[in-house]
């Protein structure tokens, strides 16, 4: 077997010595560094490498940014849940105050309206609060917190800022009983505001009022306003009482069946105004006569002498 022309396989070929390669690459690096420092010859290569490496950098940063975003999301979610819980507890804590404030505002509006009604009516009046309703389920009566100590007397009219509520029927030392207009035993003389037609309004129960003993052909229509006529000497004339809601004219009956709805908050409001005696100003003739009495007495006495 001949060995002439035998060469070792490429795997065992040896190139330049390691020291020679180290020297070569070190010298090349120094040359490139000096050239780039003095002449900026490798700027384009740096730009190319940065452009190529940018997608790789973004892909490598995505897991880190995703983990940070997820952490911030869950942290903000927990913070929002805590804030919602705190706001919910705070709203529950202040709900009672808000409801009470709204109730007080409504009462203040009604009280201001009552005081305005008191100044507009030529009679003394006392503001009272409704304590509770009577225990009898078949009567429409309420108890107010004013009685004999406040000058309340039986028979006085009770109104609110809209119209007539009822009448004081029983008085106690510290409270009084008011019979509402809707009670079946309560009646009040009224007149139709549109044409002055007089009638008697009586309670019909169930929050309604009816006009009794009014002819079937009477000039009255749905929507008419009924006001007090003042003929009984108890209610001031012109106080709103009710509004006609339904009229049933049957020729087989002598009287019409007329159902009305109270204008005032008969079974709603919590404050009422109890009217006292009317304030009647002295007539000019009486005032002048009273002022001239002393002078007349002296003139008469002088004449007698």
TrEMBL record:
GO BP term, pick one: regulation of cell shape
User: Transmembrane residues, as ranges?
Assistant: 20-39
Q: Name one Pfam family in it.
A: MreC
Span list, region Disordered:
284-305
What are the Basic residues biased-composition ranges?
A: 296-305
Going by the UniProt record, its keywords in alphabetical order are: Cell shape, Membrane, Transmembrane, Transmembrane helix
| InterPro entries with a match to the protein in the record | Cell/Rod_1, Cell/Rod_MreC_2, MreC, MreC_beta-barrel_core
Give the family from UniProt. Belongs to the MreC family.
**What job does the chain carry out?**
Involved in formation and maintenance of cell shape.
Tell me the PANTHER family matching this sequence. CELL SHAPE-DETERMINING PROTEIN MREC
- What protein is this chain from? Cell shape-determining protein MreC
The organism named in the record is Sulfurisoma sediminicola
């Amino acid at each position: 077997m001949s060995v002439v022309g035998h060469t070792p396989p490429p795997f065992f070929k040896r190139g330049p010595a390691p020291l020679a390669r180290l020297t070569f690459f070190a010298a090349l690096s120094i040359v490139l560094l000096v050239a780039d420092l003095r002449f900026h010859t490798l700027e384009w290569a740096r730009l190319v490498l940065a452009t190529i490496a940018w997608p790789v950098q973004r892909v490598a940063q995505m897991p880190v940014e995703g983990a940070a975003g997820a952490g911030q999301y869950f942290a903000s979610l927990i913070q929002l849940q805590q804030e919602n819980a705190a706001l919910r507890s705070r709203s529950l804590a202040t709900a009672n105050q808000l409801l009470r404030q709204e109730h007080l505002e409504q009462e203040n509006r009604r009280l201001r309206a009552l005081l305005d009604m008191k100044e507009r009516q030529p009679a003394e009046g006392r503001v009272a609060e409704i304590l509770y309703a009577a225990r009898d389920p078949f009567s429409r009566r309420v108890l107010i917190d004013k009685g004999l100590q406040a000058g309340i007397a039986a028979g006085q009219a009770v109104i609110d800022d809209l119209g007539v509520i009822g009448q004081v029927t029983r008085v106690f030392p510290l409270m009084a009983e008011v019979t509402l207009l809707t009670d079946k035993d309560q009646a009040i003389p009224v007149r139709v505001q549109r044409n002055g037609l007089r009638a008697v309004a009586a309670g019909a129960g169930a929050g309604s009022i009816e006009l009794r003993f009014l002819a079937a052909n009477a000039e009255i229509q749905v929507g008419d306003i009924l006001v007090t006529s003042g003929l009984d000497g108890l209610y001031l004339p012109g106080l709103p009482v009710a509004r006609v809601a339904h009229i049933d004219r049957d020729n087989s009956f002598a009287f019409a069946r007329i159902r009305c709805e109270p204008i005032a908050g008969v079974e709603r409001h919590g404050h009422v105004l109890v009217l006292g005696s009317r304030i009647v100003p002295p007539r000019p003739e009486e005032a002048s006569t009273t002022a001239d009495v002393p002078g007349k007495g002296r003139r008469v006495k002088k004449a007698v002498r």
